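Action item from last meeting closed. Structure (301 res):
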């Protein structure tokens, strides 16, 4: 079977959740024989005057840059010593966060971004957006959010909900690839409300057939509900799932800013890794606005 995960990008900001994301990236890389990019975007500070945006504190910026370079070099050296068979690369950028990530996604042909998540968003994050949520919604690549509390790095039980029709074939293919690399079991969950019952049930049956054709072990169940995010989260707990693989499709995008859409619900109610599949053939491409200065990932020290 084709290796669908060949290059990983893991965001590094020298926090505990970042350390956990790196650990997850290394474990995935070992199973998929993938390259690991250790990525950091340097924080710049800016003031706005009549001449436009001007960077200040050049000495501070240079000092931070040296600290970051040294910290990433130390991390890379440590990882190479522990995992000599893996290919590591360090990339430091100095631009707006998502623009910088997308540059690397395209230039390095990244298959999956891995970033740490603190899990449930507080009110401030709901208003302004957490960095992990910003990466999820704006990156031109599939994204794996790894909760800080996650302490299992193999995917023995892989929950694959069938809730929307978009990119379902790609999601099944990726799920089977991950299951085979982990010698795991796919738990296929058809989940629908009354309005979409016929088309979702048909897609669910086709997904079962597709998995069976690929000789992949699986179990399956179908739920009828309008509260999909909560039910998926509950099912993942009852089923002892290690990862949930989801289409990047927000069926509740009509909801107001102050209400939880599907993404926020699933993040806030789930404490295992969430992989959001983005179709490479229809990348969003957020490359237009490069301000060059952004308060993004913190530096060490």
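Sequence:
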């Amino acid at each position: 079977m084709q290796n669908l995960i060949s290059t990983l990008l893991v965001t590094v900001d020298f926090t505990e959740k970042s350390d956990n994301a790196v650990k997850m990236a290394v474990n995935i890389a070992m199973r998929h024989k993938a390259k690991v990019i250790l990525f950091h975007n340097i924080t710049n500070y800016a003031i706005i005057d009549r001449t436009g945006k001007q960077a200040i504190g050049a000495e501070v910026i240079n000092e931070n840059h040296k600290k970051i370079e040294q910290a990433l070099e130390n991390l890379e050296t440590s990882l190479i010593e522990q995992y000599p068979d893996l290919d590591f690369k360090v990339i430091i950028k100095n631009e707006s966060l998502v623009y910088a990530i997308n540059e690397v996604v395209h230039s390095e042909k990244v298959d999956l971004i891995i970033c740490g998540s603190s899990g449930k968003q507080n009110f401030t994050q709901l208003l302004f957006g957490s960095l992990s949520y910003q990466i999820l919604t704006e990156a031109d690549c599939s994204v794996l959010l790894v909760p800080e509390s996650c302490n299992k790095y193999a995917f023995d039980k892989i929950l694959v909900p069938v809730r929307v029709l978009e990119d379902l074939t790609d999601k099944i293919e990726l799920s089977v690839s991950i299951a085979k690399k982990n010698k795991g079991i796919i738990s296929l969950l058809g989940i629908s409300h009354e309005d979409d019952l016929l088309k979702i049930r048909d897609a669910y049956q086709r997904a079962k057939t597709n998995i069976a054709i690929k000789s992949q072990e699986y179990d399956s169940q179908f739920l009828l509900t309008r509260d999909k995010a909560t039910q998926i989260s509950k099912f993942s707990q009852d089923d002892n799932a290690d990862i949930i693989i989801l289409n990047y499709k927000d069926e509740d995008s009509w909801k107001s800013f102050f209400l939880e859409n599907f993404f926020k619900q699933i993040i806030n109610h789930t404490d295992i890794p969430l992989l959001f599949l983005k179709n490479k053939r229809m990348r969003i491409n957020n490359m237009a606005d490069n301000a060059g200065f952004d308060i993004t990932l913190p530096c060490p020290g």
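Note appended to the action item: The CA atoms of residues 95 and 293 lie 6 Å apart.
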